[in-house]
Amino acid sequence: MSTAEVSLDVARELRAICGDDKTRERPAGGVYVSPATAEEVAAIVRLANERRLSVGAAGGSTERGAVELNTDIVLHTAQLTEVEHYDHADLTVGVGAGMTVAQLNDVVGADNLMFGADPPLQERCTIGGLLSTAAHGPLRHGYGAVRDYCIGVRFVTGDGRRAKGGGRVVKNVAGYDLMKLLIGSYGTLAVITSASFKLFPRPRQTRTFLGEFAKANEAIAFRDRVVRSPLAPMCLELVSAGARKMMRPEMDEDAWVVCVRAAGSDAVLGRYRKELGTAISREVDGEGERTMWKVLGDFPRAMSGAGNIGPDVTLQVTGPPSETLAIVETVQTTAAESGAEVGMIGRAGVGHVQVTIRGVSQNLAEQVRTIVERLGQLRNGLSVKAVGAQNPWPVRPASLESMRAVKRALDPNNILRGREIA
Amino acid sequence: MRITARDFFAVLNSMRLMPSAAFVGELQRITGHDAVLDRPDDLMLYEYDAGVRKCTPVSVVFPQNTQQVAQIMKLASSAGFPLVARGAGTGLSGGAIAPEGGVVVAFARMNRILEVDAANMRAVVQPGVVNQQLSDNVAHLGLYFAPDPSSQKACTIGGNVAENSGGPHTLAYGVTVNHVTGLRVVLPSGEVVHFGGKAAECDGYDLTGFMVGSEGTVGIVTEITVRLLRRPERIATLLAIFETIDEGAKTVAAITAAGVTPAALEMLDGWTLRAVEAACHAGYPLDAGAVLLIELEGLAEQVEEQAEAVRAVCFEQRAREVRRAKDENERTLLWKGRKNAFAALGRLAPSYYSQDGVVPRTKIPAVLQFIGSVAEKYGLRIGNIFHAGDGNLHPLILFDPRDPAQLELVQVASRDILERCVAVGGSITGEHGVGLEKKNLMPLLFTDNDLDVMLSLRNAFNAAGVLNPGKLFPTTRMCRETSGPSTNPVLQAEGM
Hints:
The complex is a heterodimer of chains A (422) and B (496). Helix content of chain A is 35%, strand content 24%. Chain A folds into four domains: 3-76, Uridine Diphospho-n-acetylenolpyruvylglucosamine Reductase, domain 2; 83-201, Uridine Diphospho-n-acetylenolpyruvylglucosamine Reductase, domain 3 (2-Layer Sandwich); 206-301, Alpha-Beta Plaits; 303-387, Alpha-Beta Plaits (2-Layer Sandwich), CATH 3.30.70.2740. The two termini of chain A are 22 Å apart. The longest helix of chain A has 16 residues, at 3-18. Chain A has helices spanning 3-18, 38-51, 101-109, 127-133, 140-143, 146-149, 178-182, 216-228, 241-247, 266-276, 286-298, 301-304, 324-338, 364-378, 400-410, and strands at residues 23-25, 31-33, 55-58, 73-76, 83-87, 92-96, 113-114, 150-157, 162-166, 190-198, 200-201, 206-213, 235-239, 256-263, 280-284, 312-318, 341-347, 352-358, 383-386. Chain B has four domains: 5-108 and 438-493, 2-Layer Sandwich (Uridine Diphospho-n-acetylenolpyruvylglucosamine Reductase, domain 2), CATH 3.30.43; 113-230, Uridine Diphospho-n-acetylenolpyruvylglucosamine Reductase, domain 3 (2-Layer Sandwich), CATH 3.30.465.10; 234-343, Alpha-Beta Plaits, CATH 3.30.70; 349-423, 2-Layer Sandwich (Alpha-Beta Plaits), CATH 3.30.70. Chain B has 19 helices and 18 strands. Chain B has helices at 5-17, 20-31, 40-43, 66-79, 131-138, 157-163, 170-173, 207-211, 245-257, 270-280, 300-316, 328-339, 341-345, 364-378, 404-423, 442-445, 448-462, 475-482, 489-493; strands at residues 36-37, 59-61, 83-86, 103-106, 113-117, 122-125, 143-144, 180-186, 192-196, 220-227, 229-230, 234-242, 264-269, 290-298, 321-324, 351-354, 382-386, 395-399. The two termini of chain B are 22 Å apart. Mean pLDDT of chain B is 91; it is low at 13-17 and 478-496. At the A-B interface, strand 9, helix 7, strand 11, helix 10 and strand 19 of A face strand 9, helix 8, helix 9, helix 11 and helix 17 of B.
C-alpha cells in the first residue's frame, strides 16, 4: 500500500484511537499521530500490523527529523510526558518517553539531583530518542552510558505487545535485561513509552581545566596522563582544531584542546590543578563554564538545525582508547585528500570521537564512504554510527544474524521501519 | 517461533530414546576420555549449587575450547538432551542445576586469562577464570575487576556473566553487566558468534548486555571481554555502630541524601553480627543492634571529606560509635567478617536459605521490621546481612534440610518477604538470579505479556529448550511452553 492511500483510509481509524486533533495527514502521504498513552501506542502498532503499515517513532528530531521518516505512520511521543514515579530520596525517577532531558532535569533539579546524560540539544532531545539512539554527551565520561543507569523500560513491541523490562529499583536481575536490548536499537524492535532511571547528586561546585596542544598526538598523550592519574573527572573531552574553527569561524588559532571538568570542594579542585600541572592554560567556572559545555555538547547539531539537514554528516566512532590517535589521523588524512573539512570532538577518555564532515564539493556522501571504509580497515572492534542515517551502522555489524533473530522475535512483520538494520 | 507442547514432548521423547551410554561416547569423542564423567559417585558432586535444590546430571563434560563447546551444543541439539553450563557451582538460585536428563558443561578447564590489555583497561578471559584470580592477576598494574560477589574466591566470571552477579562494591561501580564489553557465544544452533568487543560502544544491538544475566538460557559464553578499573589512591573503611536495627537502616538513605555515594554500604544486624564475630573474630561489637560497614574510595581529598560527611550523618542518626580501619589489615578483617558471614552461620544450623529481595533504600527500615514479624510468625531464625546501599536485602533463614516441613515453612516465609519487597516497589532478585528458585515468583513482577516477550526472545535462539530448560520462566503459568514432567521430588513439587 502506498503512503498516499494510507492517509485516506487509516487516518480515520487513527483518529478513533487518538482523537481528531492528534492525527494529521502528511502532505507527502502517510499520517502523523500523537498518542497520549501507552495503550494508544499499542493500538496504533496493532493497527499497523493488521494493515501491514510501517511505523516510525519521532521524539525531538535531534538526530533524524520526523519529516525525514518515510514510514506510513509517524508516531510522535510528544504527549507521553507523564512522571510515573519520582522518589527523590531513593534517587530514582520514571518518566514518559516524550519528556525532554531538560524537562527531566527541571523535575529533579529542585532536589539537587541530576540526570546522568547530557545529549545534544537537551531542550528538544526526548528520553525515548536518547534511549533509542544510545546518545550521549560529555557526562558520558564520568557517569557512564545511559545503559548503565536505565533501570526499567516500558514499551510496545513491533507486534503490538505492551510489556516492560526491569523495574524501579537500582539493582535488579529479574528476567532478561530488555533495557540493554532496546537502548541503541534505534526504534527497530519496539516503541519505548516510558523508562526509569537512577539519578545522581548534583555537584555543588565544578570547574573546567583547559589544556591546549599544537598536535593531536600531544592532546591524546595528555588524555592518557589524566586517565592514568588518580583523578576522576566528570568530563574529559577532546576538541580538534577543526571543530573549534567550525564552532567559531572567526578564530585563527590552530590548537587541539582537552577539557577536564572536575567537581568537588576547593581542596579537591586544588588537587586537580596540581595533578594537571603546567599543561593547563586556562580555567573556567560559573556561567562561562556552563555556556562552554553547552556549546561543546550541542556541536555540531546546534548549527545545522534538525538532524542532518544542512551540509554536515556526523559519525560517532568509538574504539579502544589506544586507537584514538589512529582514528583521528585516518579521518584527517582522508579528509585532506578529498578536500573535506572535518571537526572532531569526543569523550576521549572512553575512546569516543564524534567526526563531523563538511563537504566542500558536491560529493559529501563519497567522502564519508571513504572515511568509513578507512576506519573499517583500522582494526576490529571499532564502532561506527552514522547520525541520522536510515541505516545507523554503516559498517555491517558482526552480530547481524543474531540481530535479525531478535528483530523477528519482537517485530515479525517488520513494522518498525523508522530506521533499518541492513 | 514458539515451542509447542507437542514439540517439547518430541524433544523429550528423543531424549529418552538416546541411551545415555551412546551420547557419553559421543561426548568423549569430542573432548577426550578424561573429560567426561558419568559414574554416579562423580555425578553426585555436580547435583547441587550453593542453594537448596538438587538434580543429578546424566553426565558432566569438560570442554577445553570454543570448538568443543560448539560440537557439544550440536550434539545436544540433534540428540535432544538438555545442557546447562556450570562454573564453580556457587550460585544461589539453582541456575547451574542440571535439568532432568541433562548434561552439565563444566568450565573448569577453560580457565585461562587470554589477554590483559592494560592500555585499554580490558582483559579477555575464559569463563572458568575465578573472579578473584583476575583481580590478583592484574593487581601489579594497579587494576582490578570490580564485581565482587561474596563467593569471589571461588565463583567464576562465566557464572558472574550468566547471573549478572553483584557484590558489595557494585553500589558505586555497577553489577557484572556494567563491566562486560564483549562476548564470544556458542548459540544452540552450534554457531559461534561475537557480540561487542573492547570498545565502550558496540555496533548493532547491545547483545552483550542482553546475554549478561540471561542465566544460560540463550547461549553458552566461551570468551568474555571485561573492563578493568584503576585501584583508588585512598580507601576509607568505616564501621558505624547502632543500638537498633531501625537507626542503622534509616542511616542508609540519610547518607545518600547527603550526596555521598559510598563504594560499598553494607549492613549486619546484631544477631548476625554476633554469629559472625564468634566465627571470624573481625572485631565487631557484640552488644550492637546493627552495624553499617561503609567504604569510600577515590581521590584522597575527596575521600577524607566524604568520610567526615558520613561520620556526621551517622551521629545525626544516633550512631553509638563510628570506627575507621587504621590500615589494610584492619580493613581486611572488617571485610572478612562480611564476606564469610554466610559460612559463619553454618555453625548455628545445618543449612540456611538466603533471599535476595530488593527494595527502594527508603523502604529498608519498614521491610526489616516486616522480616522480623515473619520470623516471629513462623518461628524461624532470620538474620540480615546485606547490601544496604542499593536496598538489596539478604534475609538468611536458618533451617534443617532433613526436615521437609521446615523447608516448606522457609519457602513460605521467603515468599512472604519477596511479596512485600515487590509491594513496596522492589524486586525478587538483585544479584542471585531467578533460576529454579524464584521462577514461579516472576508473575509477582511481570505480566503475561512481559514474560511472553522474554520467552519469544529466548525462543529466537533456544526454541527447542536445549539450553537450561525449566529455568527463569514460571512453570505455574507457562508450563505448556517451558517445561516437562520431572522425576526429581524437589523439582516435581515445584511443577517442573
